[in-house]
């Protein structure tokens, strides 16, 4: 019916028909977009953080795995990044600018879906976690401009970016581990554990948006943080709107390790 309606409309437009006989048929009602349900409520998000903090750190490799997991979940949650954006961007995309009040603010320029660029506020928490992760890998605390170090690195000496599949495996492993610990508490936690096992990296992006909204961050700022609108070219000094977005994101959207 949709195809026929389009064909009749073309015939009307081309002058072959005086009218479209299907235009009088009942129009299909548009479905309202469903609410986002694939996100972690704050108590489940806390369980994930506690599990990450419980990871063993006895050997160099275990310590490296711990800091990588902690940094990856920081990026996905505080930055609201897609897993493809973690894989496809480098640490050289972090940069610092002074705002109108003279405060230095860090940003992450992300090349995202559809080759669109956006600026993600790199809060003080994010920069601390970045510094810790880099120091663990023997790198300077802050990245140099245009540095090609991947945002998240493989274990060992390799500096190649992890694939989306590899990052997905890391995230699913953390969720599975947290779910396993939750299930050990008793039958009343089985349903919550099952929810954690279903979670993926994109759930963290939805969680970031949901938690920012719960924290009264302006919806327009959340839109820009998550890249739901195109980014205009970045000038030498950030606009006042961007400064407000950075301040509100840093004040109201925290990870609190």
Tags for this entry?
single chain; 257 residues; mainly alpha; 10 helices
- What does the largest sheet look like? 3 strands, antiparallel
Average pLDDT figure:
86
Shape: globular
Whole-number radius of gyration? 23 Å
CATH architecture of the largest domain: Orthogonal Bundle
Helical residue percent band = 40-55%
In spatial order, strands of the major sheet run 1-2-3
* SSE arrangement, N to C: HHHHEEEHHHHHH
Low-confidence stretches: 230-240
CATH topology of the largest domain, by name, is: hpI Integrase, Chain A
Number of helices: 10
Q: Which homologous superfamily in CATH is the superfamily of the largest domain? A: Intergrase catalytic core
Briefly note the structural class of the backbone.
Answer: mainly alpha
| SS strand fraction | 5-15%
N-end to C-end Cα span = 55 Å
CATH first level of the largest domain: which class? Mainly Alpha
Domain Tyr recombinase: 35-251
GO cellular component, one term: cytoplasm
Main location: cytoplasm
Keywords: DNA integration, DNA recombination
